[in-house]
Structures are given as structure tokens and as C-alpha cells.
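Appendix B. Raw example, untouched.
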Amino acid sequence: MLASEQLEKASAQLSALSARAKKAETDTQTAKSKKKGDLQKQVEEARASSQQTAGELKSEAQATGEEMDSDWAEMQNNWKAHVAKVRQNIDGAKASQDAKRAERHAERAETQAEDAIDFAAAAIDEAYYQILSAAAARLAADEVAAVAS
């Protein structure tokens, strides 16, 4: 793949990511005015979407026969474990009606949401670095191939 093709593909992926982030931002803004039942439905839809995206990522990697870099695989597994723990805490807290426990749960959920946003921002920064690094590596490989021929 030429560097320009690789950069075009990455640009399209970042554009799609940007659109998803904008939708999440818009949905977050509208969530402020929703009633509890409507918000809970939105929560369940977001959870299902998140699980579907994670499943698609795994399926795509398996379908193409690609093996993830061990660091990325470890990070993905750590993230999955974190998400599972958070969701377990959320599910457990739903059963509790104690006001103090509910308040602690809400504060913990807010902190976890902020952490997830920070993680996403760091992942975008890393993706940007990886895109540019891959393009530079492709240019270097093309130069070496040109000299060798």
C-alpha cells in the first residue's frame, strides 16, 4: 500500500470516529432533558452498541487472520476487564435503594465516564502517532526498494 493510500484510509477512519464522537456529544446533551425511563433506554442502547463494536473488532481481526500486537491485545483485554467490572458495579448498584450508596455509585459512575473520555482521547493521540509513523515507515521502505532496484 502506498503511503498516500494508507493516509487516505486513516483519514476516512478518523472521519468516521469524529462523527461517532459528535453523535455521542449530541446524545449526551439531549440526555440532560430525558426522563429516567427514556434515559435508561438510551443507556441500554449505548451498552449494546459498545458490546457490538467490541465484538466486531474481535471478529474483524479473526476474519483477516491478523494477530494484534501483544501490547494492543493486552490493553484491549485490560479495557474489557475494566468495562465488565464497571458494568457489574452498575448492575449491583441498581439493586440498592440506599441514598448514600446511590450517591456514591453516581459519583463513581461520573468518574468512570470521565476516565473513559480521557482514555479515548489518549487512544486518538496514539492512533495519530501510529498513522504518521506508519506513513513514514512506508516512505522509508519505498526509498529502500527504489535504491535496491
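End of appendix B.
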